[in-house]
């Protein structure tokens, strides 16, 4: 037998968590004032996170291309490195 105990989450807590999650999505992904179903909201959240990953990958690729075209000792390269360290 497992010594782990199950934790019950009330419907009110789930509703509160869904509201918090919905508030984290950008305006364009929210469906007006109506509350989306939990399933729909989770799917939209997953899609949003995937789009953020794609955006990070794209920006990373663009930065790599930019850095590759610069002289490593240039002032611009040093500025970019300092920004990345922040």
UniProtKB/TrEMBL annotation:
Record domain BHLH: where: 1-52
Keyword Ion transport belongs to the record: no
Coiled-coil positions: none
GO molecular function: protein dimerization activity
Alphabetical list of InterPro entries matching this protein: bHLH_dom, HLH_DNA-bd_sf, PRE
GO biological process: regulation of DNA-templated transcription; regulation of growth
Keywords from the UniProt entry: Growth regulation, Transcription, Transcription regulation
Protein family (similarity comment): Belongs to the bHLH protein family.
Name of protein: Transcription factor ILI5
Organism: Ananas comosus (Pineapple)
Lineage per the UniProt record: Eukaryota, Viridiplantae, Streptophyta, Embryophyta, Tracheophyta
Gene: LOC109711368
């Amino acid at each position: 037998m497992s010594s782990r105990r199950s934790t019950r989450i009330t419907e009110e807590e789930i509703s509160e968590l869904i509201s918090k999650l919905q508030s984290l999505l950008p305006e364009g992904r929210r469906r007006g004032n109506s509350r989306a179903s939990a399933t729909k909201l989770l799917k939209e959240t997953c899609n949003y996170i995937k789009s953020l990953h794609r955006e990070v990958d794209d920006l990373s690729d663009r930065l790599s291309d930019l850095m590759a075209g610069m002289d490593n000792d240039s002032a611009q390269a040093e500025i970019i490195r300092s920004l990345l360290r922040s």
